Amino acid sequence: MRKIAFLIVFISLWLSSYAQEGTIGKEQMREIKKSYNANDPATKALTNALSNNDVMKLVLSRENLSTVDHNFTYRVNAKGITDQKSSGRCWMFTGMNVLRPSIIEKYQLSNFDFSHNYLYFWDIFEKCNLFLEAQIKYANLPMDDKSVDHLFRSTIGDGGVWNSFSNLAEKYGLVPEQVMPETNTSNNTHWMLKLIKRKLREDGLEIRNIATSKTSKNAIQNAKIKMLGDIYRILCLNLGEPPAEFDYRFVDKNGKLGEYKTYTPISFMKEVLGDYDFSNYVMLMNDPSRPYFKMYEIDYDRNVMEGKNWIYLNLPSDDIKKFAIESIKNNEAMYASCDVNKQINKDLGYSDIYNYDFESLYGVEFGMNKAQRIKTYDSGSTHAMTLIAVDLKDDKPVKWQFENSWGASAGHNGYLTFTDKWFDEYMFRVVINKKYIDAKTLEYLNQKPIVLPPWDPMFREDY
What we know:
Cathepsin B, Chain A, two-stranded antiparallel sheet
């Protein structure tokens, strides 16, 4: 009996010890508390400072402020700052901002902008069609399948990348800002998108049921067309109906009137852009979490059913810089995107990895590199802007500049200057004309892309 009792006690103690493994006990707590000494004068001062002040003001490096300089060796002839307001259309504004300088120069204008509202209408409409087509494609998969779950969770949004802009422009053309001006909804998209997402999820469930029944393909497509009719109505009520054709004339910087012409959106785009070919531009990406010199394609990451997915060539940062410098020297702005809120001084329009010193204030090291930040969702591209300037010293880049789309009052008169070291850490992608890329790198573009899933931590769309 004693042996049995002893065995029971032993097992109970062993199970109790096992169950407590990993918990925080008194001994562990005593060790943890050594990191904070409430009686230390410096610790008291830090506690008072942090608990009573804005931390960003406390970590702002006074020493680093002396390095702020908004002058550049080479700068694209950009004019006018745009404002995306409370919308996630930065990728669209950036795509158009890349084109604007050449049009302003071509027609000798004081300023010019395209209608973002026009292209935004078609972006949301096409994304809805893509979503419904995906539900038809995956109708036989269960709701908890990764692809189906991702679609219903993400549905649609304002975000996009360069291929989103080129897909829309090639299919729907472009129109001047005056032809389809902004509305309150296009500037503040939250509520309209919320309602459209709700309707799409409802429609997605219905079309899955239709697609899995013994129904003809025509019946499925007819159901989808009816659903898209509801989406079209919501968009028209909020944004206005896109024009099929319009009359327009240019007025140059001296006030001279051009002749009125009747355009379609496609004919207008072809006239103002001339021989511009979207296929001449390639996205270069710096993602150190993956092998360099490889082509990648993000599955189902597009806005138009028949359009191109997000495709890019992964390169070291220094290679991308070399090609970007050539583009700027030739007065050609570039679509670019980055993790904009990292180490940004919004008041000065200046980003540098030394702007804010959290380590000195807290006495805690933050040591992840770029690849580790990507893999753990700590960093990724969050915003697209137009890359327009570079400052060189001994032929090496010292700093760069973005033309932003947050209005002229943001940053440095609407622009954002960033150091070359910040480029290395927080720049992710740049779209460059192939003519500025060397022959060896162009060969990599012929590879068959490695297909990656849209939920990968690297692939956040620009907002």
